[in-house]
Design brief:
- This protein has 414 residues and is of the alpha/beta class.
- The chain has two domains: 280 residues, UDP-N-acetylmuramoyl-L-alanine:D-glutamate ligase; 126 residues, Protein-Tyrosine Phosphatase, Chain A (Alpha-Beta Complex), CATH 3.90.190.
- The strands form three sheets. The protein has an eight-stranded mixed beta sheet with strand order 4-3-2-5-1-6-7-8, with helices on both faces.
């Protein structure tokens, strides 16, 4: 399981996935899908597109990863997690079949086929599928989508995907299919060149959403992002944080294409889908405001340099009497880009995520000290969050993040 053991759990290539798919009747062949890849923003993008499709009246599957609290979060139909009995039955069939077990599939390979089979059994009208890691060799790449979306490129999982943005872009661009439209949310320089050349080579119609004007944005007193000047009218979204305006531009470009394939998409569905994305799809952990009084608690799962290019300035700009930061990382993350972006005037609570590859809080504290960041060390996120909340006063903000698993530990402890 990648979220527990890291790169050791990653099995690149599609051969095992295709053999598993055959054993379950090749469910990918009877599904209409949207495929979403990218380093950051693919989760928010996938959830929002799914929410709009639901609002347009389509029975919609959604496959994302990782989960925060419950495995079943990964596989949803119209926002409802997969039945526990279905998961158990699927796994029992796998365990009982010696030929399938002999394939030694990864956790993600087996989970992907479970999701596709479930969507087919539920007779969804469309399924939004988020890439697990990379794209070209990711096991989700057995689908034949109606649309591909690639959000952006940042230096993450370099040991598996490449050591330059261009190399990583080439892996992400591996989801592009001949003749299938593709939207690029963000791309510049060499990354843009890789994307464009791949799309042309595949004969795939392509759109660079970053060439379109940015929707006018205002953060309201109600805590919502208010977008105006879109072709769908004014749009409100609970997904805040500077990165979301870039995601939104890509989503709007994607909807322009999907509208031609799913005619139920209209202005009302777009506005409803954006506004209700968290409640309709179960999205959590994207600059999620968990509490506002007597002090704010905010969670964000951003965990790589690209995410912290946005999160760092956002944290520094927070208007709070005191900023308390509960933070932890996994041990395969390069912190040399992340730690310098953290505000120096915050109070830090270094935590050890509960997954096997969680970086020990003391190691994080030593690394942080080089950048003038200091604070206490805690064996668990629960202890760190409790200490931060005990120290916080009215008017303060508590931020919890650094890793998906820090947020997961916090939500599990509530």
């Amino acid at each position: 399981m990648f979220q527990n053991t890291g790169a050791h759990a990653y099995k690149p290539g599609l051969s095992t996935t295709l053999r598993l798919a055959e054993a379950w009747g090749n469910p990918q062949d009877c599904l209409r899908t949207v495929h979403v890849a990218g380093t950051n923003g693919k989760g928010s993008t996938a959830h929002t597109i799914a929410s709009v499709l639901q609002a347009a009246g389509y029975r919609t599957g959604l496959y994302t990863s990782p989960h925060l609290v419950d495995f079943r979060e990964r596989i949803r139909v119209d926002g409802v997690p997969v039945d526990e009995e279905y998961v158990c039955s699927f796994v029992e069939k796998f365990i009982a079949d010696d030929s399938l077990r002999a394939l030694q599939p990864s956790f993600f390979e087996l989970t992907t086929i479970m999701a596709l089979r479930y969507f087919a059994d539920c007779k969804v009208d469309v399924a939004v599928i988020e890439v697990g890691l990379g794209g070209r060799l990711d096991c989700t790449n057995i689908i034949n989508p109606e649309l591909c979306v690639i959000t952006n490129i940042s230096m993450d999982h370099t040991a598996l995907l490449g050591n330059t943005p261009e190399e990583i872009a080439a892996e992400k661009a591996g989801i592009i299919k001949p003749g299938t439209p593709v939207v690029f949310s963000e791309a510049e320089g060499g990354v843009r060149k890789v994307f464009e050349e791949t799309a042309i080579e595949k004969g795939a119609p392509y759109v660079f959403a970053c060439d379109s004007p940015m929707p006018h944005l205002r953060l309201g007193d109600d805590g919502l992002m208010h977008y105006s000047g879109t072709r769908w009218g004014d749009i409100d979204s609970p997904l805040t944080g500077d990165c979301q305006r870039y995601n939104t531009r890509g989503i709007l470009a994607a909807l322009d294409i999907l509208e031609q394939k799913f005619t139920g998409i209209n202005a009302e569905a777009v506005r409803k889908g954006f506004a209700e994305v968290c409640s309709s799809t179960g999205l959590a952990g994207r600059w999620s405001v968990m509490q506002t009084e007597p002090f704010r608690i905010i969670c964000d799962t951003g965990h790589n340099p690209g995410a912290w290019d946005y999160l760092g300035p956002t944290l520094s700009a927070i208007e709070a009497d005191t900023l308390h930061v509960v933070i932890g990382f996994v041990n395969d993350k390069d912190l040399s880009h992340i730690l310098p972006s953290l505000p120096a005037n915050a109070h830090y609570y270094f935590a050890t995520p509960s997954v096997n590859r969680g970086r020990d809080a003391s190691e994080t504290a030593v690394a942080a000290k080089e950048y003038g960041l200091s604070g206490g060390c805690y064996a668990t996120v629960k202890e760190a969050a409790r200490a931060a909340c005990e120290n916080a006063k009215a008017g303060d903000t508590v931020f919890i993040g650094g890793s998906t698993f820090v947020v997961a530990d916090y939500l599990s402890s509530k």
